[in-house]
Amino acid sequence: MNCLTTAWSAHEAELRSWARRRLSNPAEADDLIQDLFIKALRQGERFCSVHNARAWLFEVARNILADRLRVARDTVELPEELSAPLEDTDTVDSLTACLPRVLSELSTEDRDAITQCDLQGVPQADFANARGLSLSAAKSRLQRARLRLKARMTQVCQVQLDDAGHVADFVPRN
């Protein structure tokens, strides 16, 4: 691990300076540098075969920073007047009462795709493998099934949309 300690000694100050310029909190920059060192340590002897240790360290540091920034997005509390009216969500939620009947009227292939991927949360890649399909074919099958389900629900449950394309009303069908 002499190669790691040599590279770390040569580039730690530059890496720490780089991190502190990009993060407003020095403690966060130090955490990033610590995570970088741990990743380098985990490379073990493979780190010694890296052609340009400085470039590797900076690339991994940039990736760690990107991951941290992606996770640490600031959130803003919305005012009450911007939330969806309760009756709007009730309409859409109660539309699910039409789903079992309409779903039973779809072809076996469509029903299987929607049930597995949308209702049971099976990843599309797993669905494709289980059916002997390519991922592209499975995605196409699911997309076509969703379109047929939407068309059928719109017709059978008499779904009415508002100007924005949201469900405004429907006739329940059990």
Can you tell me about this structure?
There is one protein chain. The protein is mainly alpha-helical. The chain folds into 2 domains: 2-71, Rna Polymerase Sigma Factor, Chain: A; 81-169, Orthogonal Bundle (Arc Repressor Mutant, subunit A), CATH 1.10.10.10. The chain has helices spanning 2-22, 26-43, 53-71, 86-95, 99-105, 108-119, 124-131, 135-156; strands spanning 160-161, 167-169. Strands 1-2 form a two-stranded antiparallel ribbon. β1 (160-161) and β2 form a beta hairpin. α1 packs across α3 and α2 crosses α3 (53-71). The longest helix has 22 residues, at 135-156. The N and C termini lie far apart (69 Å). The mean pLDDT is 85.
Please tell me how large the radius of gyration is: 27 Å
Enumerate the spans where pLDDT stays under 50 for 5 or more consecutive residues.
none
Query: What is the tally of helical segments?
Result: 8
The beta-strand count equals: 2
Provide the domain count: 2
Mean pLDDT: 85
The CATH architecture of the largest domain can be named as Orthogonal Bundle
**Between the first and last Cα atoms, what is the distance in angstroms?**
69 Å
What class would the helix/strand composition place it in?
mainly alpha
Q: CATH superfamily name of the largest domain?
A: Winged helix-like DNA-binding domain superfamily/Winged helix DNA-binding domain
Strand content bin: under 5%
Query: Briefly, what CATH class of the largest domain?
Result: Mainly Alpha
Report the biggest beta sheet as strand number plus sense, adding barrel if it closes. 2 strands, antiparallel
* Approximate shape: elongated
> How do the strands line up in the largest sheet?
1-2
Order of helices and strands: HHHHHHHHEE
> Could you estimate the helical fraction of the residues in percent?
55-70%
Instruction: Determine the CATH topology of the largest domain.
Output: Arc Repressor Mutant, subunit A
